[in-house]
Amino acid sequence: MKRIKATLSDNNVQFFCNPKKGVVVCKIKSCIVLPRIEDGGFYVKKVEVKGMAICGKDDEYDEIKGKQIAESRAKVALYRELREVIIKLKTHFFNEEMDLMNQKSRYERLIAKEKLHIKELTLWKNGLNLKTS
User: Fold this and answer.
1) More reliable by pLDDT, 123 or 19
2) Could you give the CA distance from residue 130 to residue 133 in angstroms, rounded to a whole number?
3) DSSP-H helix ranges across 9-96
4) Residues whose CB is less than 8 angstroms from the CB of residue 76 and which lie 6 or more positions away in sequence, other chains included
5) Which of 64, 112, 116, 117 is least enclosed by beta carbons within 10 angstroms?
6) Any idea what the Cα angle at residue 32 is, between residues 70 and 92, rounded to 5°?
7) Residues 1, 52: Cα–Cα separation, whole Å
8) Which of 28, 34, 23, 30 minimizes the C-alpha distance to 65?
9) What pLDDT digit, counting tens, does each position of 12-54 carry?
10) What pTM, to 2 d.p., does this model score?
11) How much is the average pLDDT of 80-93?
12) Backbone angles phi, psi at 60, to 5 degrees
């Protein structure tokens, strides 16, 4: 079975920053490409996901870090969408179950990776890593 994947390019990622409110929003427009078994073609499902970073009251607004956090949260939403598609497909294609489960596990690992990235980004304050300080 061909891999289920999402398109992701810089052209499809937009950021909206509001320094006064301390908010950064990342919007990702993507296509989930699903293989079509009957003729070897593919289906395309368009998706749009968002991620948001909100500056804490005691924190200083940092647009770059806000963009990183918002983008990671948007990617988590995208990977969750992919995981849900795989779960739905699994019920229709039992003979391809193992491959689908491998793909589901891949996206679960990507979700965990992005969540860890968010945690690491939020533990940095004033150039110090609060994890180790």
Assistant:
1) 19
2) 5
3) 63-90
4) 51, 111, 114, 115, 118
5) 64
6) 125
7) 35
8) 23
9) 899 999 999 999 999 999 887 777 666 667 777 888 999 999 9
10) 0.69
11) 74
12) -95, 135
